[in-house]
Write a structure and sequence with these properties.
- The structure is a single chain.
- With 583 residues, the protein is of the alpha/beta class.
- Helix content is 39%, strand content 19%.
- The chain is built from 18 helices and 16 strands.
- An eight-stranded parallel β-barrel has the order 1-2-3-4-5-6-7-8, surrounded by eight helices. Strands 9-10-12-11 form a four-stranded antiparallel sheet.
- Helix 7 links the parallel strand 6 and strand 7.
- Helix 1 packs antiparallel against helix 11 and helix 7 packs parallel to helix 8.
- The protein is globular.
- The two termini are 47 Å apart.
Length: 583
């Protein structure tokens, strides 16, 4: 185990484990690896990459992160590789599975846990306190026997556990070899003073406390996760368990960005330091939003859209005269991109390329190699000119990021269908109707097929056209697309957000869909809305694989169609892989 400076605050990020437990926040393996790489560049000390026993997918994700991200040192102020951690219950099968996943990382950890509150012991585990201690000690000893020297133990629901029993069990796991003791307020029950007192009590009363790192893990059920975590730091905790944007089970976890900036802005008060590169915070926040589809509220601290906005005339006047009057930190400190108008419809290729190179160089979430492919650059430039023509006030950095996101999102998935055109009729006392044209790249010919497409960036394929009615314009578009691709789907979520301000702003749409499990014969084109399904139907589709699609455009209907086609392509790709694997 690495011996850390006693004033160093260790950031343990659990976005990929606890964060992914947020309803609807499912990530695939590639997305988890992508986020893990950015966590490493951010300076996170420990990445809890998953719960390997939970599924084969979780195991493979943790293993790949250990192999591909574990050795990375890029932008790491500490000069140390990020520790890759796997979660395991205090059960032999869990522990061995976790070890098999994390062992490939140069620095790895196993985090094991067992509930200690009487309510859990009696009602869930049905064991005595003595048995709880025995199981916990056995788990830690097993981990140590595997050659793992970095061992974390959590007494689940510590916030409602008897303090003296906590001292007893933590004393024994320290003797067994635990190196980090995490104190979870699992249900977000405690007040900051209570949580701080609990940490202080355990640190001062537990024999061997000075040989281990004490850790916080707080949930936000009462909106106090950050306050509780900071109270823990004030009382001796030197590891904080956090997630990007505070995502997580129920009301979420402590937000990494809030702890990083609070301790940075108040170094003397907390008397700790950390190795988080705060200029990367906004970039990874946006990446997690895009990959999980979980949009943060506008007034979210640090990373919300309004975090650095000033509406009040008095505030605006003060900021114009001296920023420090109403801003305790600058947008640059957390990497918020400028909204200065950089480019317009008269900007040429060179200006566009130069600006993109600057943006991509400053943001590790993007690969600048996309500019090396001239064909791809020309597509981006064409999209930029289209956007610039429609925006009267010019194109901002936020707009350029959205263009890149839209382009990369399409590029990352196998395309079976490409959106060519939509025409929508909707209004008061009018039945919403959508006509949709797709370019079919599957090679199939159906009744809706027409001539080859030759005017859509030289993409050759059958142009297929169909129309459908719906409850509204967006629903009609989705129904028409489904009928064209012969799919019945469940629309699980639909989210729309303006990327910048103004009536000509780009809109980003994120949809999540799954294929209906109970499709009727000779039916296609139906889009069932999860919230409107009967309970039996909803339960029947609850375990279906979910596919997320994204799209951006000035026209929110076009953005919706792009997002839905993107999700359909991912669904088709998964079905294609499954078909090939069974042949």
């Amino acid at each position: 185990m690495t011996q850390y400076d006693k004033n160093r605050l260790i950031f343990f990020d659990t976005t990929l484990r606890d964060g992914e437990q947020s309803p609807g926040a499912t990530l695939n393996i590639n997305e988890k690896v992508e986020i893990a790489k950015q966590l490493s560049a951010l300076g996170v000390d420990v990445c809890e990459a998953g719960f390997p026993i939970a599924s084969n997918g979780d195991f493979e994700a943790v293993k790949r992160i250990a192999q591909e991200v574990g050795p990375l040192l890029d932008n790491r102020k500490s000069g140390e590789e990020m520790v890759i951690c796997g979660l395991a219950r205090a059960v032999e099968g869990d522990i061995r599975r976790a070890y098999d996943a994390v062992k490939y990382a140069p620095r790895h950890r196993i985090h094991t846990f067992l509930a200690t509150s009487d309510i859990h012991l009696k009602n869930k585990l049905k064991i005595t306190r003595k048995q709880c201690i025995e199981k916990s000690v056995a788990a830690v000893k097993l981990i140590k026997s595997l050659g793992v020297n970095d061992i974390e133990f959590s007494p689940e629901d510590a916030g409602r556990s008897d303090k003296d029993f906590l001292v007893e069990i933590l004393t024994e796991v320290i003797k067994a070899g635990a190196t980090t003791l995490n104190i979870p307020d699992t249900v977000g029950y405690l007040m900051p003073e209570q949580y701080g007192e609990l940490i202080n009590y355990l640190v001062t009363k537990t024999p061997g406390a000075d040989t281990v790192t004490w850790s916080t893990h707080c949930h936000n059920d009462l909106g106090l996760a950050t306050a509780n975590t900071l109270a823990g730091v004030r009382n001796g905790a030197r590891q904080v368990e956090v997630t990007i944007n505070g995502i997580g089970e129920r009301a979420g976890n402590t937000a990494l960005e809030e702890i990083a900036l609070s301790t940075y802005m108040h170094k003397g008060f907390f008397n700790v330091f950390h190795h988080i590169d705060t200029t990367h915070i906004y970039g990874i926040s946006q990446l997690v939003i895009k990959r999980t589809g979980m949009i943060v509220q506008a007034n979210k601290a640090i990373v919300g859209a309004n975090a650095f906005a000033h509406e009040s005339g008095i505030h605006q006047d003060g900021v114009l005269k001296c920023k420090e009057t109403y801003e305790i930190m600058s947008p640059d400190l957390v990497g918020v991109p400028s909204n200065l108008l950089i480019l317009g419809k008269h900007s040429g290729r060179n200006a566009f390329r130069t600006r993109l190179e600057t943006l991509l160089k400053d943001n590790p979430s993007y690969d600048s190699k996309i500019l090396e492919n001239d064909e791809e650059f020309q597509k981006l430039f064409k999209n930029f000119k289209k956007l610039a023509d429609s925006k009267k006030k010019g194109v901002t950095d936020q707009d350029l990021y959205a263009l890149i996101d839209d382009f990369l999102n399409i590029k990352k998935c196998n395309e079976f269908y490409i959106l060519k055109n939509i025409h929508v009729t909707s209004g008061t006392n009018t039945i919403p109707t959508a006509t949709v044209q797709l370019i079919d790249l599957t090679g199939n010919v159906n009744e809706a097929s027409s001539d080859f497409a030759e005017d859509n960036e030289e993409i050759a394929g059958n142009v297929i056209t169909d129309a459908h009615i719906g409850h509204g314009a967006v629903h009609a578009i989705f129904q028409a697309i489904n009928r064209l691709v012969c799919v019945n789907s469940v629309l699980r979520t639909y989210e729309l957000k303006a990327i910048t301000e103004g009536s000509d702003a780009l809109g980003r749409v994120v949809v999540r869909i799954s294929e209906q499990n109970d499709q009727k014969e000779n039916s296609s084109g139906n889009v069932a809305i999860l919230g409107e399904m009967k309970e039996k139907e909803r339960l029947g589709n609850s375990s279906a694989d979910v596919y997320r699609g994204e799209g951006a455009d000035n026209d929110v209907l076009v953005a919706s169609a792009k997002a839905y086609v993107n999700a359909i392509n991912k669904l088709m790709s998964a079905k294609n892989v499954l078909t090939q694997s069974t042949q």
